[in-house]
Amino acid sequence: MFFSSGDSEKKGKEAVKNLYYFSENQMLDCNQYVIKDPKTEELALFDTGNGISLKGLFKGMEKYNLEYRNITKVFLTHEHVDHVLGLYPLIKTLNDGPPEIYAYGETASILKAGNKSQICPDILGINLEMFGIEIFPLSVIDLANSEEIKVFSEFTFQIHYTPGHSLGSICYYDSNKKILIPGDLVFTGGSFGRYDFPGGSLSDLINSIKYVNNLDVKYLLPGHMGISDNGNPQIAFSYKMIQSMTSFY
């Protein structure tokens, strides 16, 4: 298979107590985050990767005694293929007790409809058949009317709508623990999400990064590249870099 390297073990670490980071594999994948409820052993998964990397995630989780069968909630940052395609094999794997799926607005609508063209835009030049994953309509809890959501007993995330990379992009922000899970809005090292996909917008992306730049962030846990425990300076760097883009437009 073209994406055969995608199922290699995902490297992980405990980024914050009871919150684990698993780095993206090659071939259009994403970072994933797992929160454990220490009382019940239940797990919440943030973003599901490209589907092919799911076995690699399970292997990585084993090292931290995280049982994938205990995944009861899935939280998505946006609707793109590298973040949501893993939903479908995950649901089939957990068929006896599928997890609740949470997404915002446009992302929720796309997943409910099973809209292949919006999950994998033609601009990517990728045929979904290469992944060998069937897309089908899903039951999704829409976060559009939720200001925050509690994840087990220890984490409470505010829901911030941050368009620019996609129409359904959100950030999850825990103000007590100063954690930001921004999806593909902003990365470490001055990087930021693409805005040339359908539904993307440079001006919206700038405004969204400016918005999260005003949050108190210690732990920046993005959808790609590395993570940081020096969140605000990293976000400020990305904001400075994207502002320079306006001189070209």
Structure commentary:
The chain is of the alpha/beta class and 249 residues long. It has one domain (4-248): Ribonuclease Z/Hydroxyacylglutathione hydrolase-like (Metallo-beta-lactamase, Chain A, 4-Layer Sandwich). Helix content is 23%, strand content 20%. It has seven helices and twelve strands. The chain has helices at residues 54-62, 81-84, 87-93, 105-113, 116-119, 202-213, 231-243, and strands spanning 12-16, 19-22, 32-36, 43-46, 71-75, 100-103, 141-142, 148-151, 155-161, 170-174, 179-181, 219-220. Strands 1-2-3-4-5-6-7 form a seven-stranded mixed beta sheet. A five-stranded mixed beta sheet has the order 8-9-10-11-12, covered by helices on one side. Helix 6 runs antiparallel to helix 7. It is globular. 46% of the residues are buried.
Compose a concise summary of this entry:
The protein has 249 residues and is of the alpha/beta class. The chain is 23% helix and 20% strand.
Question: What labels describe this entry?
Answer:
249 residues; Metallo-beta-lactamase, Chain A; seven-stranded mixed β-sheet; 12 strands; 20% strand; globular; disordered N terminus
CATH topology: Metallo-beta-lactamase, Chain A
Q: How many separate structural domains?
A: 1
> Quick one: CATH class?
Alpha Beta
Structural category: alpha/beta
The name of the CATH superfamily reads: Ribonuclease Z/Hydroxyacylglutathione hydrolase-like
Q: How large a portion of the residues is in β-strands, by DSSP E?
A: 15-25%
User: CA-to-CA gap between the ends?
Assistant: 41 Å
SSE succession: EEEEHEHHEHHEEEEEHEH
**What is the name of the CATH architecture?**
4-Layer Sandwich
Shape: globular
Question: Based on DSSP secondary structure assignment, what is the total number of beta strands?
Answer: 12
Largest sheet: 7 strands, mixed
Supply the number of helical segments.
7
- Mean pLDDT, rounded to whole units? 92
Helix content: 10-25%
